[in-house]
Amino acid sequence: MSGPPLLEVEKVEVHFRLPGALPWQSRRLRAVDGVSLSLAKGRTLGIVGESGCGKSTLARAILGLVPITSGKIRLMGRRIDRCPPNTLRPLRRHMQVVFQDPFAALDPRMTVGEIVAEPLRVFEPSLDRRGRQARVRRMLDRVGLASSHLNRYPHEFSGGQCQRIGIARALIVEPALLVCDEPVSALDVSVQAQIVNLLQDLQQEMGLALLFIAHDLAVVRQVSHEIMVMYLGRVVERAPRAPIYTAPRHPYTRALLEAVPLPDPERERARKRTLLQGDLPSPLEPPTGCAFHTRCPRAEERCRTNRPRLIQQKPRHWLACHSPLETF
Question: Can you give the residue ranges of every domain in the chain?
Answer without folding.
Answer: 249-328
